[in-house]
Structure formats: structure tokens, C-alpha cells
Amino acid sequence: MFESLEPLLPRVRKPVQYVGGERNAGTKPWDSVPVHWALCYPDAYEVGLPNQGLMILYEVLNERDDALAERTYAVWPDLAALMREHGVPQFTVDGHRPVGAFDVLGVSFATELGYTNLLSILDLAGIPLHAADRGDGHPLVLAGGHAAFNPEPIADFVDIVALGDGEEVVGEITDVVKATQGWRRREVLERLAAVPGVYVPSLYDVTYGEDGAIAAVTPTSDAAPARVHKRTTSDLDDWPYPKQPLVPMAETVHERMSVEIFRGCTRGCRFCQAGMITRPVRERSPQGVGEMVEQGLKSSGYHEVGLLSLSSADHSGIGEIAKGLADRYEGTGTGLSLPSTRVDAFNVTLAEELTRSGRRSGLTFAPEGGSERLRKVINKMVSEEELIATVGTAYEHGWRQVKLYFMCGLPTETDEDVLQIAHMAHEVIRAGRKAAGRGDVRATVSIGAFVPKPHTPFQWAAQTAPEVVDARLRKLREAINSDRSLGRNIGLRYHDGEPSLVEGLLSRGDRRVGRVIEQAWRDGQQFDGWSEYFSYERWMAAAERAGVDVAWFTTRERGEHEILPWDHLDSGLDRGWLWDDWQDALAAEEQDDCRWTPCFDCGVCPTMGTEIQMAPPGSVPLSITPVGERSSTPVRNPALTGDRGA
């Protein structure tokens, strides 16, 4: 499509994001393989390109001899208008091929706010919006990612859903697509429904009771299981992806090479969907981390390495990893960063290793709740004293700014809980000035409005109304600025409550919410994660026109026995355990981390046939010979050949 696209590019902003040709990207001859994937991140290139999940699947699929994968992203409205005017369809940035020509369009949803962009992408591609209207020649539209754990609001728009980790399931889907070429679409879908972790919404019927709640979700085909279980990838050292990270042509939200050092979390933060649905913990070995860092830096040219996970300092070998990498890359200008760090996992030794290169990336700590009582409710077990001590350590070791992340609108929250954030921020500045011996330390307080999510103990909770959230945030700003000598060193960033209410509608909605999504899109809604495009009024009007009560899906508390839209989709967590944890939250009772305590029967390991996997002790990331003298062939640590299960 590039000959048709190129004349349009001088007329749009940031045209470089549409041309492809990034380092480590590539194309295969179309006719050399039988199965063609278009991998989509339903947001702008600058957000989508660094997405680790999409990058991994891109490599995994392209390593196969029988498949190719290319990438596509949401195009900005300026280009979309020109594409419609000139008949240019949605395209991939790798080969500039029309998305409608591919066998599978795989869409990765990190957030529900990408749903309207999905409809824009389908429309530009010439693919019917509704799965029921697609014929044998249309791509199979697949949804994946964290938001796909409740895909019911987009059930009318997608053909299949992949639950959980994607490394293995995309290969099995490829096998089915290859084996069923020439089959009728319904037959292909029934065959795909037999793949573990694959959910086919059209093979299920949903009925509703007089009270508006779901009465039953019933399979309509023998091929469809009553309950679909997520996929879990174990032994992460066997999946060292991405081996060749993509290097963007345009500016993106993350300018670094990243390595996922472990997956999953058992801290039990009750608000955290990611921590719940990715259990159990599976650590990558320090040796495996080191090899990925070395390979990634060589192939990308980056000078910063992000050690990624939900809480990177919780890796049982984080000290070994940080020291080994600091030794390995000392004097090379390569920086190390932990994008998010738990307060109770950060220490002096780790701080020194992360700063040995002389580069200090930002430090982010997430207490989440303003008061100690509220932190017990959400199971974020950290005291104010721990936070002050930890931040003081960071300032003492050369950092001049830290970011503190909180949420507003948490269950049982009061105004006083939120105002405690101001007190904590003031104490952080005081401690920072004392530790650093200077007055220019800063703290940024970032506030997000809480959205209850499926597959968490808070899935039954009532979401706080936007006007309540906004009022509390105004009071917080006043409290921070009440002491100007401290407040001038504190930045406050927050998200208004209105976008979060829409996210709440989309995250806990059922199939009836699909009507709202389509109406909002037809009314012009898209790029909902961008404040300049989001319109709360348009969403509320769309809900009214679709006959959907927004409050019923958002600010209403659910009962224990209500059938939830996602109950037939199994993340491994026992529903009874989640309910009990919800009751513990209301009583402000904490739950331990099962990595270090006996199993507390959340249900994941026996249900999924998995187990917690810890890195072996005593291993090192790599030989710490200086870079210029190092052998090109790394020697594996014999300690890594044993069982990694714990």
C-alpha cells in the first residue's frame, strides 16, 4: 500500500511513525508462508511500539517457518480522514500490506480504553464491525492482553479471545488456522474453541434475569467448554524474548531496552488485576536475565536497560542481578532502571548498584493508599515510617526527585484518607532535605482514580462517583499547598474521575455495553486514553441512546451470588477465595505473600497445573569480565541446570 500511502504523509503530523523500517523489524515474502498475522496495538505508534507483549509475539511468530507477523497501530485522526478520502485501508507498518488480507488480526488490549480504536481499525481495514457479519474471507479478529480477561463488552466485535500468556497459544492458533484453510468460518471457530485458553464468544449464549443481572452463560456448541482456562507460560528462561528489540523510528513513551525479569505477583494487592491474573510468580534466572541484556543491547544500541516486572525489586535474586549487571557494564554509560519499586524492597545496596553507572533514572514508589488503615484495606503492607526511610535512602544516594503513586476512590476511603497523602508528601520533602543536605529535592505525587477490575477481590465493589473523586483531589491540592515552604517542592498530577468511570463501565460490563461502545464510536469517540480526544459527555449520551444504565455497571456494589460477566473465564483464582479476601478487605485485614509463607489456597497453582518458580541461589547474571575483554560466548552457570521449581 505504500505507493498509495506515501503522498498522504507530508500532510499529517509525525509521518515517520507510519513508514516502518525500524531496526530489527523485517518482512517475509507473502507467498512463502501459509499463515499471516497482523499484530495490532490499538493506540498510537508511540505507545504501541514499546509494548513488550506485542514485541514478543512478533518474534515468536516470525521465527516459525509457516507464519509471518507484521504490526499495525491506530492511526491518528488526521491520517484516518485522508485514508478514507483516498481509499487507503488500514495497513501494517512492516510491509504496508492491507490488514484485511491477513488471516488473523491479533489485538492486544492493555486497557479497555482501546475499544473504540478497535472499531476504527476494523472500519479502516474494511472488516465488518460485527463478528456475525464476517465471511470466510475476512481475518479472524483475536483479542488478548490483560483487558481481555473480561472481553464481554467487545464480544460482538471479536471472533476469538486468548486468555493469559501468549507465547505458546499463538503457535497453537497458527497450527489450527493452517490446518483449516478452506473450511467454513464456523468450523474454524469450533476447532479453535478446542485450543486451551481460547474463548469463542459467538459459541455462548447469555441470558438475563428480571433484575438485569446475568441469569446464565451457556455454550451453544459441543466444541465450546463451559469454562475457559487461561494459559500460563512456565520456565521463562526457555522464552528469552524479545531477542532483538524493536528500535523506533519516531519518539516513543519508553526509550530503553527492557527485560522482563519475572512474571506474576503474589503480594496480593487487592486492587491489582495484573497481579491477580498473572499468578503464579515465575522468575527468570539471573543468568537468563544477563544473557537477554547482553543480546538486547548488542542488537538495539540502547544505553538504558529497564528490568521489568510488576515489582522488580521483589525478584529473589535482584541483588545478584543488579550487581552483576553493574559490574558488567561499568564504564560503558549503560544505565539500569527499575520502573516501579516497592517501598519495602528497596535498600542501600540496590540503590548503589543502580547508580554506579552515574546515570539515575527516576524512582517511583507506589504506597497507593494515603493512610495506614486504607493500605491495610488494599493489602499494600507498608508503613509511613518505611516510606520515609526508603525515600531518604534514595535522596542520600544522589536522587533529587522521586515519584509517589496513589489512588483515589478506593473502597472504604474517606476524605481524611486522601488528605494523609499531603502529610506524607510533606514528610518526604523534610526527610529528603535532611538526607541530601540541600533544599532542592522534589517529589511528584501522582494520583489515579481507582477502577474496580474483574478477577480481583474488588470486583464486587462500588466504584466511587467522579464528583467525589474530583472533590477529594481539590482538597488534597489545598492541603499540599497549605505549607508553601514544602508544597513548592511537590508536584501534583492526577486523572479526573470521569475517564475512570468510563473505564469502569468497560471493564465490568457485559455484552450489552457493546452497544455503548459502538454508539460512542459512531458519534466520533476514539483515542480515549488521550485527554484531548476523550469526551465524557459523548460517552454518557451514547449510553443513554443505547439504553444502558452506567451507574448499574459502575457505582453499584455486587452481591456474593450475582453471576459476573466473566465468571465463565478462569484466571485460576477461586471465586470463594476472592470473596473471602473482599470481606477481609472490608475488615482491614492483611494477607501475606505466599512466596514466603505457606499456601493460602487462592486456587491458581492446582487449577492451572503450575507452581511458583524461583531463581536458583548462587547464580550470577554473566561473567563480570570487563566488556572489552569478554568472550563472545557466555558460559552457562551449572547451577542453572537443576530444577527451578520452589
Automatic annotation (TrEMBL):
Q: Which InterPro entries match?
A: CHP03960_rSAM, Elp3/MiaA/NifB-like_rSAM, Radical_SAM_N2, rSAM, rSAM_horseshoe, rSAM_sf
Q: Which domain of life is it from?
A: Bacteria
**One Pfam entry name:** Radical_SAM
Q: Where is this region: Disordered?
A: 624-646
Coiled-coil ranges (or none): none
PROSITE patterns documented for this protein: RADICAL_SAM
- Family annotation (CDD domains): Radical_SAM
Tell me the ranges covered by the Radical SAM core domain, including all copies.
251-489
SUPFAM superfamilies linked to this entry: Radical SAM enzymes
Name it: TIGR03960 family B12-binding radical SAM protein
